Amino acid sequence: MDGFLVDYFAREDRRVLLVAGAGFDPRSRAVALRLSAVSTTVRALFIRENRPNPDQGQIDRAETNTAALLAAVANGKITPVEIFGPDGAVIGGRNIIATLGGQTFEGLTDIVVDISALSVGISFPIIRYFAERIGRGEGPHNLHVFVAHDPRLDGEIRAIPSDAPSYVHGFKGGSTLFSAAGAARLWLPQLASGKRGALERLHNFVEPHDTCPILPFPASDPRLGDALAAEYLTELESAWSVDTRNIVYADESDPVDLYRTILRLDDLRRPVFAETGGSLLVLSPLGSKVMALGALMAALERDLPVAHLEPIGYEIDRAIPGDVAEPDLVHIWLEGEAYPQPRPALVPEGRTPP
After folding, report:
1. 311-316 and 214-216: which strand pairing?
2. Does a structural domain hold residue 340?
3. Is the dihedral of CA 307, 161, 233, 216 positive or negative?
4. 247: left (phi over 0), alpha (psi -120 to 50) or beta
5. How much is the CA Rg of the chain, to the nearest whole Å?
6. Shared domain check, 194 and 115
7. Which of 53, 163, 329, 354 is most buried (CB neighbours < 10 A)?
């Protein structure tokens, strides 16, 4: 990955805007430090997600990361974003889009979105905003998404979910349309340890006709899939009535694997339910950030709804280091000059685009 950063972003004709998180997550600095080391033209918009009553230890970590980010990127700006309104409503997605709408992108060649330290409720709307700009023929032309892949850390940063499920801003799909009222809803929740309460609330919110839970396999921990199946045994057998043949397995380290799996499920269901109200897939990415990226790619391509519980806060072990020295960076070149124009959809090998 460092080779790509040097070969591509060090070129004199590159003008880059980095959008990344400036929070307590140890991965906050991973992409910014490497990008600023190879390019002198980077400017950055660092997002500070503000939630009620944050832990002082997390505030201290965020301040340390913020200082390091501003030191690394001379042309960097910290932008606070309120995630909840005074009445408790989730407003983070709308706020970040309003922030982006006030930016100027003239002269830029590339947008880099680092989702390593951004929540789903913020990162998904950001990426959709830029993808839609490109779709309208507006600049910048290239959109890159980076994430520092660390499933262990994803598990150790424990989200405290809010009480009210909702759809991520910009990702309602056709779920709220009258025409979707009779659609057969298939819910695709990404299983993660310690999320039983959140997934129960999401299940009640989505009210699916069928559920296909997503388990990581292969995974860095080869027993993770079995452990999650055991943790959610009650849900799988009773609450969700999941046939074992309907469990979805996706490579924990490859977002394209889950992306293709979701598209394949959508392709298979559309003709089956075409005469009986249609089919609607609803995604809920709660686990690793890499697999969430795969869900995002599918949601963008098929305009699928993303049901989510916005965290009101986080719990993190104080023993976790403040920085990740050698992150495993995953890069998706989502839009731009790497593709023929207009960019064709990525599809499983041997299949033709729908």
Report:
1. unpaired
2. no
3. positive
4. beta
5. 20
6. no
7. 329
Confidence grade of residue 175 (pLDDT, cut at 50, 70, 90) = low
Q: Please tell me the distance from the alpha carbon of residue 322 to that of residue 24, in angstroms, as a whole number.
A: 8
CB 268 within 8 A of CB 354: no
Residue 169 lies in a domain: yes
DSSP count for the chain of H helices, then E strands: 11, 15
Determine the structural domain holding residue 115 and report its residue range. Answer: 2-154+318-335
- Residue 57, CA distances (Å) to 25, 53, 207 in order: 12, 12, 38
Residue 164 near residue 259 (C-beta atoms within 8 A): no
Which CATH number do you get for residue 182? 3.40.50
Q: Verify that 216 and 252 share a domain, yes or no.
A: yes
Structure tokens of 184? 């057969």
Alpha-carbon gap, residue 84 to 73, rounded angstroms = 29
Region 325-343: mean pLDDT is 87
Report the alpha-carbon distance of residue 229 to residue 43 in Å, rounded: 44
Q: Are residues 93 and 196 in the same domain?
A: no
Three-class DSSP labels, 259-299? HHHHHHHHHHHHHHHCCCCCEEEEEECCCCHHHHHHHHHHH
In this prediction, residue 354 has a pLDDT band, given cuts at 50, 70 and 90, of very low
What pLDDT does 20 receive?
A: 98
Q: Which two tokens stand for residue 19?
A: 């959008």
Asked if residue 206 and residue 75 are part of one domain, the reply reads no
Q: Which of 65, 112, 74 is nearest to 329 (CA)?
A: 112
Kindly report the CATH number assigned to the domain that includes residue 14.
3.40.50.11700
Per residue in 15-71, pLDDT (tens digit) is 999 999 999 999 999 999 999 999 888 999 999 999 999 999 999 999 999 999 999
**Tally of domains in the chain:** 2
- Quote the strand ranges of the chain, DSSP E: 16-21, 43-50, 75-82, 110-114, 142-149, 157-161, 166-167, 184-189, 210-211, 214-216, 248-250, 279-284, 307-308, 311-316, 328-335
C-alpha 216 chain-centroid distance:
16
List the beta bridge partners of residue 55. none
